[in-house]
Design brief:
By secondary structure, the chain is α+β, with helices and mostly antiparallel strands. The protein has one domain: DNA gyrase/topoisomerase IV, subunit A, C-terminal (Neuraminidase, 6 Propeller). The chain contains five helices and 15 strands. The relative contact order is 0.15.
């Protein structure tokens, strides 16, 4: 389900694993230094669950997890929040999910970036966790409310949380708006969906550090779309985002990959050679 490049099996690094059903665990990277020909057990899975995301992380880093119904939770990778476990274990709950919800993405925020974030502005503006039940309320009053897309004055400086929905809408949200919480909570609302009747859902949630990066989106019908990150608006968590791709009625965004500037240059060279 994941390919993780490794140049050294350090005991100071961990593999953080997240399943579709919501279980998360971290295991020392050194535990995978001697892989047999028939492989090693990395995680124990419940029946019907799947291992979907694996990332390298250190204790000082933090973890951001998103769900299909547009919720997200941000918590530290410390032993107090996520204790190290051996390979043949199931893990613990990453996020409290509503019935019918599932996880759609995980990313790691390095400690060097986390320490520089000014979270005070976001915490004073948003002091309460959004309850999942509140996301479901659809009243005429809510329908008529004007969507807030305002971001803090420092919102133009990365990193951002890239939010892409299955219906083709996207936005960049300053990471500071996702305040640190305790693991296994309900999290915060990551986006408001343009289609309020439940047709649109979250496709992925990723952290982007540079506005000169590009993204590649793949739809269920196998169509690949390439777009610059700086072309996607910076908005608040409560905004719906802008259209990043027009889709056929039965098509949807299935996956998103971040393409660094160096990789983009290599692709352009290959295209010119052809």
């Amino acid at each position: 389900t994941s390919i993780v490049p490794v140049d050294e099996f350090s005991r100071e690094e961990y593999l953080v694993m997240l399943t579709k059903g919501g279980n998360i665990k971290k295991t020392e990277l050194a535990a995978f230094s001697n892989i047999r020909a028939n492989g090693l057990i990395a995680i124990s899975l419940e029946e019907g669950d799947q291992l979907r995301w694996v990332r390298r992380a250190r204790v000082e880093d933090s973890i951001l997890v998103g769900s299909r119904l547009g919720m997200a939770i941000h918590f530290r990778c410390t032993h107090a929040q996520l204790r190290p476990l051996s390979r043949a274990t199931r893990g613990v709950r990453a996020m409290k999910l509503k019935k019918g919800d599932e996880l759609v993405g995980m990313d790691i925020l390095p400690a060097a970036i986390l320490d520089t974030l000014n979270t005070e502005e976001a915490e004073t503006a948003e002091t309460e966790t959004v309850e999942i039940e509140a996301v479901e309320i659809e009243t005429a009053e809510i329908e008529n409310q004007e969507e807030s897309t305002e971001v803090p004055s420092n919102g133009n400086i990365g990193p951002w949380v890239l939010v892409i929905t299955m219906g083709g809408y996207g936005k960049r949200v300053p990471v500071a708006q996702f305040r640190l919480q305790n693991r296994a909570g309900q999290g915060l609302m990551a986006t408001k969906f343009k289609n309020r009747k439940g047709k649109d859902k979250l496709a992925t949630l990723r952290i982007v550090n540079n506005d000169d990066d590009e993204i590649m989106m793949v739809t269920n019908r196998g169509i690949i779309i390439r777009q610059a990150v700086n072309a996607i608006s910076i908005q608040s968590r409560s905004a719906t985002g802008v259209r990043v791709q027009r889709l056929d009625e039965e098509d949807a965004i299935n996956g998103v990959a971040i393409v660094p500037p160096d990789a983009v240059d290599d692709v352009e060279v290959l295209e010119e050679a052809e």
